[in-house]
Design a protein that fits this description.
By secondary structure, this protein is of the alpha+beta class. Helix content is about 60%, strand content about 10%. The chain has 2 domains: about 150 residues, no CATH class; about 220 residues, Histidine kinase-like ATPase, C-terminal domain (Heat Shock Protein 90). Helix 7 packs parallel to helix 9 and helix 9 runs parallel beside helix 10.
């Protein structure tokens, strides 16, 4: 993951956000410096920076009182539903009280501190001029804007955290659906072989152990090597081949996959399970299932085709949780970076999936068009037989 460019600034911003005393202290320190500069260079009220700093500090108490009464006495009512009238009344009362406080403070504290000191401004101007009250409005206004911005950022962080928690909860739910669904289908295969008293039952148990090891060890990690996912498919296909025997023709092509390629775990297995559920399991005679996996121009493609009984395609409800689970996981894990399509022909059903791989696995900008799987699978018989004969690690 790339590091943010403002990495050196983030600790400072985080410190000011987490420590209220530092945040408020910086605000009033900046205000004091700006007010001192205004007396020296803006109003030319004095050339002595000591006097300018003293005047800036003398004017600070009413600003503190007015600003914090606005932040914690008036603004909280703005976000409460049904209290808009009360907010505006409080704001008007705050404005009147703030101006009166400024008048009183200047008359009873600021003016006596300038007794006998030459000034370019008259006493009347220092107390009653409109410009004399601008520091109150500007200081309180800026503080209110900063407070609103901080509350908005806090709400955005809360929403982002809630969205992340919802994302993880939904993903965990989808993963939890895969595990029992996959185990149920595999145990059905074992049950069918034991009914036949097949001598292949120990082989099924051995391969089932490898499948469960993958599900337990890697089923909850974000990404797994693509080759491990392919090994899982080979194990599963070997189990299904034992179950259906010679009436099932399996064609599996997964050559030239890059070692660095990684995908979400258990993403391909539901596609293969669906091919058996609505293909070989429902057909009485010979059945055929073909699987082609490839990586090209930074995209991983998976095409699963199965023969089926002639008739209308299964409805969404009949398709079970497998394909629905795949769609939902793709939307969560690969938003805008995947293509998923289902095609039902008179005698075949095809699932086509394309995933954009991370940059470290392979480069590429555009997804390749979904190839016609019937032609590709017709040339993959010998390779598929060899791949299925090789036990998975």
């Amino acid at each position: 993951m790339a590091r943010p460019k403002n990495q050196g600034v983030n600790p400072v911003l985080g410190a000011t956000t987490d420590r209220w005393w530092l945040r408020h202290g910086l605000f009033w320190a900046v205000r004091t410096v700006l007010m001192t500069g205004l007396f020296l260079f803006g109003l030319h009220a004095t050339t002595d920076w000591h006097r300018a700093l003293r005047d800036s500090l003398i004017l600070l108490p009413p600003l503190l009182l007015a600003t914090y009464s606005l932040l914690y006495g008036v603004l909280p009512w703005l976000g409460r539903p049904g209290h808009r009238v009360r907010f505006w009344l409080l704001l008007a009362g705050w404005l009147v009280a703030g101006l009166a406080l400024t008048f009183a403070h200047r008359h009873y504290f600021f003016m006596p501190s300038h007794h006998g000191v030459a000034s370019p401004f008259s006493d009347y101007y220092l107390v009653f001029s409109t410009g004399a009250h601008m520091p109150l409005l500007l200081t309180a206004g800026v503080a209110a804007c900063l407070q609103a911005l901080r509350q908005h950022q806090h709400q955005e962080r809360g929403n982002a955290l809630l969205a992340q928690e919802n994302f993880q909860a939904e993903l965990q739910l989808l993963r939890a659906q895969i595990h029992p669904h996959f185990l149920f289908n595999t145990l059905n295969n074992l049950y069918a072989l034991t009914l036949k008293q097949s001598d292949q039952a120990p082989v099924v148990v051995e391969r089932l152990t490898g499948l469960l090891h993958f599900v337990v060890e890697q089923g909850n990690v974000p990404l797994v090597p693509l080759r491990d996912e392919v090994a899982l498919l080979r194990n599963y296909l070997a189990l299904e081949q034992l179950r259906y025997g010679p009436r099932l023709t399996l064609e599996f092509v997964a050559d030239g996959l890059p070692a660095a390629a990684r995908i979400a775990p258990l993403l391909l297995l539901p596609l293969v399970e669906n091919a058996f559920k609505h293909g070989a399991a429902e057909q009485v005679g010979a059945a055929r299932i073909g699987i082609v996996l490839a990586v090209h121009d930074g995209w991983f493609t998976c095409v699963v085709t199965n023969t089926k009984n002639a008739g209308p395609p299964p409805t969404t409800a009949a398709a079970g949780i497998g394909l629905r689970n795949v769609r939902q996981r793709l939307q969560l894990l690969y938003p805008g970076r995947h293509r998923f399509a289902l095609e039902a022909g008179p005698n075949t059903f095809t699932a086509r999936l394309a995933l954009h791989l991370p940059a470290e696995a392979a480069g590429g900008a555009e997804a390749p068009p979904f190839a016609t799987s019937t032609t590709a699978l017709s040339h993959a018989g010998a390779t598929a037989a060899q791949a299925l004969a090789t036990p998975a690690a």
